[in-house]
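Thread: Newbie trying to understand structure tokens

Hi all, I'm a second-year student working on a class project, and my supervisor (Dr. K.) asked me to get a predicted structure for one chain before our next meeting. I've only ever worked with sequences, so writing a 3D structure as a token string is new to me. If someone could post the tokens and maybe explain what I'm looking at, I'd be very grateful. Here's the chain:
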Amino acid sequence: MSKIEKALKRAREERVEANGTQRRPARTGDAAPQEAAEARKPEYRRTQVQEASDAHMERNRLLTDGSAQHIRDAFNVLRANLLHTTRKERLNTIMVTSPRRGEGKTIVATNLAMAIARDARQTALLVDTNLRWPGIASTLGVCRDQQAGLEDYLIGEMELPELMVNPGIDKLVVLPACQATIESSDLISSPRMQKMVRECKNRYPDRYVIFDCPHVLDMPDALVFSAYVDGIILVVEEGRTSQADIRATLEMLGSANILGVVLNKHVTR
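---
Reply by user tm_fold:
Sure, no problem. This is what the structure looks like when written as tokens:
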């Protein structure tokens, strides 16, 4: 057993002791692929359905029916630009990252995935590949009982369909990471991670896969992962991200396909 597996096993045992039992995802699953131009609403057979609360989502600045129109418009514009740039060539695996931690990439990635799922022709899969600081499950308010996540697939204990969650949003599926690990770089560079990206890219023709990735500066995870995806969206925070950090990030990403930059927390004047 590798040191990664041992570390995850220890954390899992502690989690079982704290909760009494360890809950595994129900073996429920993905919808059949759609060939039509308009993506139909999936019927989930193996994917769990855990409805996210609007109140919880609003507290975390996620899109709901009650969101301000200018916020909805901003993500609709981001979606339109992304689809226009990528749809023809089927560049459907998109990594969302930022120069440093805490600049809003998880919220941007989640809202972008929800916006894509609302497009008539697309479905969306949101994957938490920030294995050191996973945040999608808590941001959406799903997987509250700390069940298995992407890390269990990466060490070979579970398969992808067992880990998928629908948060009650049509045509959106989430692959969460539920257990933080300091060995994230080894997992990111593993053959199973690369296999996961390929499988997610090719499984459904109408699917966009949005990966919430770690930040670029100070750690290698995002740089390694950037080689697996079709394109990158960079999130920067107004009043916080320095021009020096942006330049350093772009330099480190090198020849990667930067699809756009999102200015988070921008105040329109």
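A couple of things are worth pointing out once you decode it. Confidence is low (pLDDT under 50) at residues 18-36. Strands lie at 48-49, 93-97, 123-128, 165-166, 172-175, 207-212, 231-237, 258-264. Feel free to ask follow-ups in this thread.
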